[in-house]
Every structure is written in structure tokens, then in C-alpha cells.
Amino acid sequence: MQVLAKGGNAFDAAVAVSAALAVVEPMGSGLGGGGFWLLHRQRDGLQLMIDGRERAPLKARHDMYLDKNGTPVPGLSLNGALAAGIPGVPAALDHITRKYGRLTLAENLAPAIRLARDGFPIYERYRRLAEFRLEALSDSPAAAATFLDQGFLPEAGFQLKQPDLARTLERIAAKGRDGFYKGDTAHKLVRGVKKAGGIWSKKDLRDYRIVERKPVVASYHGARIVSAALPSAGGIVLAQTLNILESLPIRQSGPALRKHYIIEAMRRGYRDRARYLGDSDFIKVDVDALTSKQYADRLSEGIGKRATPSKSLPGIEPRRLGTDTTHFSILDRDGNRVAATLSVNYPFGSAFMPAGTGVVLNNEMDDFSIKPGVGNVYGLVGNGANAIAPGKRPLSSMSPTFIETEDAVVVIGTPGGSRIISMVLLASLECLEGRGGAKDWVALKRYHHQYLPDVVQHEAGAFTHAEEKFLEDHGHKLETINRNYGNMQAVVWYKKSNRVDAASDPRGEGLATIQ
Ligand code: DON
């Protein structure tokens, strides 16, 4: 809000928010992580995705997390320096400000620098996730000194100050991307990673580049959906599931059958995610075919009134829970918009912090398929398309999205690991079918099918008793997830009445503000 009031646009505000979240929500995203920023510039209608996803280090190998017998080594892709990809957030902040913003990088980073230097009182979720990652954080002296209180879990009200992070942010403010990827910060990052058994080099940092990508555009009964391109699976899976649903009679079906169809669409979308998707700079992915109406029609033909067992769909041989990452949605007075989902992957990423940097590194390497058919921390399977290779970006589910109907423009997204895409799908359908407003979409009870494991995971209350019975009678296995998941943020602009509405997920922290 301060940045907007100063004359900044939505893109400046997105940089300021990304940087501030890196400070106050270090378990979710940060300078040591990556993300996707979906931009819409009102002046000329330009829409693009800033791909600031982490890259595998140049010394990465396809079998780097397997032991001599080819078995994954527990924790190796999750904890410590070897789990970290080369971060993209600092480069993205610099690029977005310079190319699309109105203010300087120093102005956009100023609030974050203040928050890092002066500190802020920790809050319940910080405490809960620090406790969840206590062991890994304790293994990294710099992370422990920063995020813990004399080695112990800090009590509520503890003032978290991050002077090293403030100095790293100041170097970026002064020198742009070079303040992170070269010089003092780069030196400390590489030295720290190497000392802790990691494989980063100065060249990895120097060579890191964000990529401007064309978003995936889908349609649903005439509305336009704009979402993340590869290396996120989000847009493709969203397009594919919406296409399937467009060709099924969901509008004429009762609520239970409708949910059955949605689950079957999810199953097929996530099956193709596992089968075909990976970094398109490394493998060939026929995005046009996967997102075509013809392909969806063929997939719909296999959908009847009963659940299709996932193992009967040709795909990947089979073989937990995400509570972090972050999302924000911004619309400015000129109509510019940003939907951004940013991550360090697991809570506090790898929990490793190179000394003197204040930067906790991601463990996004776990988003690669470390062995065909072996699930990652979210149970997602994959194959060669998402195998590790030097410089490659791991496949993501992060799905910052715009929905554009005749009357409304919606900016939406959420964290939630593998469930991100199904959450965005469910909310999009509500919006596309004209049900409720922003508050309803973000609060909607959620259900999820990701092909494997072959179960419908759902929040309590997602199905009525009758719906549960219908689904079970038609071959679905249901599994209640005890904790609510997701933290969706939505902004809507109703063009005809020129009214703006916004809502923040009641499950998480967040605030919808209209100025
Ligand atoms: O890029 C991805 O898909 C994951 N690294 C996102 C992780 C996430 O959302 C965890 N939050 N619950």
C-alpha cells in the first residue's frame, strides 16, 4: 500500500510484497527460493509470466539423491545444502522493477529492509513450522542463530531480527541482481554451500537468468483463463481439466455426480502431469496438443459414472502434506495485475543458511522426479521428463492465475504443494459458473485427486453425507485430511459496475485490502 501510495504500480507493489514476505514469512518463500509472477499490463494488454524458478546446479546429476543400489537416500533432497537449487527471486525482483515498475529497486525493497533490521514479533504459524523443522534448522548454525532463540523454539512474541538478511537486501537494492549473484553475497553463498557438502559454484549464480514466458491460455464456455506456463504444470493441468469438464454435462448433473466428474478430470490432468511434464527448455512438451479441446474430448470418452482406477490408465507405475509457500494477488488503479506464487518448497526450504547471508535456501530439488515412479514429498510421481539435469528447472504446481469473464477479472492463486492446481480449479469453476464472490471462492471446502495415490483427499465438510455415499458407491476411495489446506488470495474487478472485491483464505494468514 505504501509503494502504491508513493506512485508505484502493481509491479512495484509485487516486488515490495515479495521482498517483505521473504522477511516476515521465511518458511514460505524468500531470496533463497523461486517463484512465478503472472503479469498483466493494462496499457497494452501485455500478459506474461516471469519464471524465477530455481535451476539445478551445473554439477547436478540425475541420480544425485540415490545410493549405490539406486535407492533414494532419505532426506537428501529435503534437508541441507545439497537440496537447494539456484535461487531466482532476487533476479526476478530486479527484472520486474527495471522493466515494468515506476519506482527504483531501492524504493521497492525499503520496507523489507526495515522489517529485517527492526524485526517483527513471530506468530503462531511461524512457531508451528519452526517446530516442524526444528531438527533441520538446528543442523545449520546460521539458520539456528536466525530463526531460533538460543537454540530453542522461540516463544510467542519473540522479536525476530535478521540483520544479515537486511544487509543482503541492501546490497541488492544498491547493485540490482549483481548484489546477490556476484561479489560478496555470491562469495558467501557458494562458500557456505560447499562447506556444507553442496555443489554450487560461482558460475551457477552468475549464469542464473529469469525467463519471460508466454502464459498458458485456456477457455471455458467463452471465458478466458490465463495461468502459469512450464516449468509449472499449473496452467496445462488447469486447461486440460477445464477442457474435460466443458465436454461433460456437469451443469446438468446433480452435485454428487458433478463432483465425480471433477475428480475424474483431476485424475487425468495429474496423470499427464506425471507423464509428460518437465522443463520445456530441456524436453519437448506438446503443450498445444495437451491443452486442446480434441484431446480433452478423447479423455472424456473414458469417463463414465464410476471411478476409473488410476492403475487402469496407462501411465506411471506407483510406488504428505505441504503447508507452506506463499501467494499474493494485486490489482492497481490502472488495471495492472500481478498474481504471484513464490516458494522455498518445504517449510523453511532446506533449512540451510550459508553463514553471513541471512538467506535460507530452498529445497526445490525435491520437486524433480528423483527416480521414476518414486513420489516426492507431496506424493507426486514423475518420470524422465522431470528428471534432474544440470541447469534444469524442477516441475512445479504453482499456479498464479487470471480469470477473465465478460464482466469480471480475477487475480487468484494459493500455496499448497501438489494440491495447488486442484484448489485453483475448484475456485475457478465457482467463479466461471457465477457462484458467489471472492469470499466464497477462497473459503470453498476442497477435495483433490492427483492420479496417484488413487484416493480422493478432502477437507472435512467438502462432501455431504449423500455425496460421500454416492462417490463411494461409484468406486472412489475417500480420505479426510485432518488439517485444512491452502491459503488462497483473490482479487476481483467487476468491470461493468467498476467495483473491486478481494478476499483472503480464512484458513491462513493474509489480508484483503481495498484502497
Ligand atoms: O513448486 C511447487 O509446486 C512446490 N515447490 C510448492 C510447494 C508448496 O506449495 C508447499 N506448500 N504447501
Provide a descriptive summary of the structure in words.
The protein has 515 residues and is of the alpha+beta class. 35% of the residues lie in helices and 15% in strands. It is built from 18 helices and 16 strands. It has a 6-stranded antiparallel beta sheet with strand order 6-7-10-11-15-16. A hairpin with a 4-residue loop joins strand 15 (489-494) and strand 16 (499-504). Helix 4 packs antiparallel against helix 8. The longest helix is centred in the middle third of the chain and has 22 residues, at 255-276. It is globular. The site of 6-diazenyl-5-OXO-L-norleucine (DON) has 15 residues, from loops. The site of 6-diazenyl-5-OXO-L-norleucine has 15 residues, from loops.
What ligand species are in this complex? 6-diazenyl-5-OXO-L-norleucine
Q: Output the strand order for the largest sheet.
A: 6-7-10-11-15-16
**Structure annotation, total helices:** 18
The low-pLDDT segments are 317-322
Query: Could you tell me the radius of gyration in angstroms?
Result: 22 Å
The general outline is globular
Give the beta-strand count.
Answer: 16
Distance between the termini: 8 Å
Strand content: 5-15%
Q: Percent range for helical residues?
A: 25-40%
Helix/strand-derived category reads alpha+beta
